[in-house]
């Protein structure tokens, strides 16, 4: 599955899932544009490292996904877009009657509104190029719910809905739009939470992972960032040309319950 000659923009991609996806796309031959809201030497070094490792062009472009104008400017600065991966996201947990309004606004902006702005900005480029792939990183919480995550769940359900709408609007064009719905993915952020959780519950690492963190994930195994990247590469391939407007769950059986 080669993506040589394609340019991929991945939001929220200087760590975790986004970086894993960027690396797999680069491995498949795509030129990649990394993004986050920071502008550090380390961010640009990540792009340089990917370029050297996979022999592609890789750049880092700062853009704050909570701001619509910066979302759209990211697409413009990239100079073209064949593949758009909307991955940027944040989380906050609280009962709805105690949910801070500023956290609600930020989560809706970054997790959902940003996808609207980037898709709206990228589609003209895809149409001009005669080909396009949009992959929205939703969540198992885009298909189901759990307490205390009202903003995140509302945003991810919204992303799934937008995915279907854009797929229908582009159905007669060589452009697809799909959503990946991961369960728990082992990222550096999640890894860093394990020792504190072990102390809190006085449990071993294995028990914390299986009985606390992965309580709702029947496989009792984390998905990996490489698996997220591989699924994205598949959705960008010719094999997936007739897959559009759907969700692919990478959740160890979570949403099968």
Automatic annotation (TrEMBL):
A Pfam family this chain is assigned to: adh_short_C2
In its UniProt record, a GO molecular function of this protein is: 3-hydroxybutyrate dehydrogenase activity
Matching entries from InterPro entries are given as: 3-OHbutyrate_DH, NAD(P)-bd_dom_sf, SDR, SDR_fam
Protein family membership: Belongs to the short-chain dehydrogenases/reductases (SDR) family.
**Protein's name in the database:** 3-hydroxybutyrate dehydrogenase
The species is Cognatishimia maritima
């Amino acid at each position: 599955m080669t993506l040589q000659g394609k340019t991929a923009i991945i939001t929220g991609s200087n760590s975790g899932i986004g970086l894993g996806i960027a690396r797999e796309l680069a491995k498949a031959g795509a030129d990649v544009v990394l993004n986050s809201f920071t502008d550090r030497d380390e961010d640009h070094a990540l792009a340089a490292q990917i370029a050297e490792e996979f022999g592609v062009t890789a750049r880092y472009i700062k853009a704050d996904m909570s701001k619509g104008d910066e979302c759209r400017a990211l697409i413009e600065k990239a100079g073209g877009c064949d593949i758009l991966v909307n991955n940027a996201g944040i989380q906050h947990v609280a009962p709805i009657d105690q949910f801070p309004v500023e956290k609600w606004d930020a989560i809706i902006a970054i997790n959902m509104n940003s996808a609207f702005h980037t898709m709206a900005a990228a589609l003209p480029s895809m149409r001009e190029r005669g080909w396009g792939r949009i992959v929205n990183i939703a969540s198992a919480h885009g298909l189901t719910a759990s307490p205390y995550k009202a903003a995140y769940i509302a945003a991810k359900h919204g992303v799934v809905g937008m995915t279907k709408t854009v797929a229908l609007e582009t159905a007669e064009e060589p452009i697809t739009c799909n959503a990946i719905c991961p369960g728990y993915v082992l990222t550096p952020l999640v890894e860093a939470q394990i020792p504190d959780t072990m102390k809190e519950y006085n449990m071993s690492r294995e028990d914390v992972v299986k009985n606390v963190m992965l309580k709702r994930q029947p496989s009792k195994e984390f998905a990996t960032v490489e698996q997220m990247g591989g699924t994205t590469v598949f959705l960008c391939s010719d094999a997936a040309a007739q897959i559009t407007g759907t969700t692919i769950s990478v959740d160890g059986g979570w949403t099968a319950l």
